[in-house]
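The following record pairs a protein chain with its ligand, uridine 5'-triphosphate.
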Amino acid sequence: MNYAEINAQLKALRQEHLLRFYDTLSEDEQSALLRNLEKMDLNYLRAFAERGKEVQRGRIEPIPVLRIPEIEEKKDLFAEEGLKLIREGKAAAVLLAGGMGSRLGHDGPKGTFDIGVTRPVYIFQRLIENLQETVREAGRPVHLFIMTSEANDAETRSFLHSHEFFGYNPSYVHFFTQAMAPAVDEDGKILMETKTAPVSAPNGNGGWLLSMESAALLDLVKKEGIEWLNVFSVDNVLQRICDPVFIGATALSGFASGSKVVQKTDPGERVGVMCREDGRPAVVEYYEMTDSMRTAADKDGHYLYYYGVILNYLFRVSDAVAVMHEKMPVHFAHKKIPCIDEQGRAVVPSEPNGWKFEYFIFDLLHELDGCLVYEVDRAKEFAPVKNRSGADSPESARELLLAQGIRL
Ligand code: UTP
């Protein structure tokens, strides 16, 4: 598209300020700006204009949880089934590493953060070491799909190449890049990052399957006969990946998905909890929970909404693919978004100044008929690295890793 076409399109959406600096730019910069504006997905603006009219949440109820004692009882059966599937090449792992990791504030992709004490131990390394446990147990490699974003793709790839994938078989590693979304100010105007580019941020962890499709990786999934995908986050350095017991339990349950959960430390803990919404699996975020929901309990005093998600899900491929084109809701996150002002000066906000658009993975879960909610011991499987310090920080994660005897 040329200048006039883009200008007309932006005017119709009341976003013509994006061309504010056009006349002050060199020819190359002008072309770069037009290219960046052309590739921007403007559909998010419609969702933003309609915010507040989102569909209200449905009827929320507790969801049954497969608790640790029951898992222990049937562990051999579950492990046998899970290992059979893995040995037949029917399970693979999907690492979601497209996030900005802005709370951690590390200069580089979050997976390149060194959590070691006496030696370097990178987050990517920890995750790969965890997956290697399964590989060793099963006696065969497992395909590992890694989702990056436009912002961190090159750095992620070169980091993993330069560390020789921490011993992982490189022919089993496949990268794909997730889509980006613009960000807007309080009035819905798209923010500019520089004079030649709007702010753009990864569009949330919910688009992974569509992004795999765009990268033609679902063809590989099909060709390899992969039936289950274990999707997990980059920031939990203790989780088991492609855990045979979890895979076996989910496959034997007959459900199309599984979700690892941990018991909350107290009703107020800020994690999303698994529940049922209108009879389907769903997650209610901590900020959506009312006090009465937080403290609702059965007659024995057990809290009803007490199992927090840790972003480790298992999806049966055929079911997830069947629903992936369903319209997923866009979520709006109020954030501090560095940008430039009307004069082109850099702004580093200390308070949230705008909105980012994100798709959430649990909206995909909700499209599926059932989910095995699978409890894991948080001491053994939950060490998140989210914040720079305090709770869920490198410091707290190190303590948890050391308590499990992991050398750092
Ligand atoms: P978070 O929700 O913690 O977001 O991601 P984040 O972007 O990593 O961190 P902050 O909020 O900026 O501090 C949970 C998981 O989802 C992935 C992350 O990489 C992490 O594994 N994610 C998140 C994506 O892959 N893409 C996204 O757009 C967002």
